[in-house]
Amino acid sequence: MAIPCPHFIASEKAAMEAGLLLPSSSLSQLILTQDDLKKIAAYKAVEYVESGMVLGLGTGSTAKHAVDRIGKLLRQGKLKDIVGIPTSKKTHEQALSLGIPLSDLDSHPVVDLAIDGADEVDPYLNLVKGRGGSLLREKMVEGACKKFVVIVDESKLVNYIGGSGLAMPVEVIQFCWKFTASRLQNLFQEFGCVAKLRTLGEKAEPYVTDNGNYIIDLYFKQSIGDLKAASDSILQIAGVVEHGMFIDMATTVIVAGELGLTVKNK
Ligand SMILES: O=C[C@H](O)[C@H](O)[C@H](O)COP(=O)(O)O
Questions:
Q1: Residue 2: what pLDDT?
Q2: pLDDT at position 259, please?
Q3: Model pTM greater than 0.90?
Q4: Which CATH architecture has domain 168-241?
Q5: Distance from the CA of 200 to the center of ligand 1, in angstroms?
């Protein structure tokens, strides 16, 4: 998707470093793709990284740009002694290929900073994550962080959690998943909830997470209200492993949009 951005702030350091804006750019002609916006947000977030940090490495098309950038700064010697904690097998592979030293929460239970994307961000910086299937490891790593910087393009902003009309993922064990899906749907019946097993490909095989579980995607027709209460109810269902609402976890959200970058702090 090409987004005309004639009012984008020309002096954005992150955009220039991403090679998307030159000091001499003609702003009236400026057109950025959605992926360019993700890259600009990611580069801005990497400005928070300092040598010696233990870093949570997020998953998805936005976080990928941040991991690439960290790898590049390490290679250039501009960052040193970084330890990365990947939030998925895919990010683990990407970080390995970039030569980023890796560890895990067992060895590094305190993470200085995590950078990750999100599927939805509400006005209070609550998130939906996991449309890429990585919510469980993300929640473990990002829950262990001193600082959690979320990077999104402006299409991810919603008025309330579930407000995009897209999925709020719940990771469940495979055993009797239909029973669990039905309990989840019933829990939010008054909000017009529909629960669907996430599948892949033409054969509609169940999607299996890095942890060997299934994902039930919940679709809401309206706001579910008290998120903490909703979270508690979901987690009380035996068979549920984790859900994709990240409540009160983000410390900073960086939004890249038509007008430039917005940094929202908790
Ligand atoms: O499971 C996937 C993660 O939660 C992603 O961070 C999230 O889905 C956002 O991904 P993207 O940056 O590709 O939109």
A1: 75
A2: 86
A3: yes
A4: 2-Layer Sandwich (3.30)
A5: 17
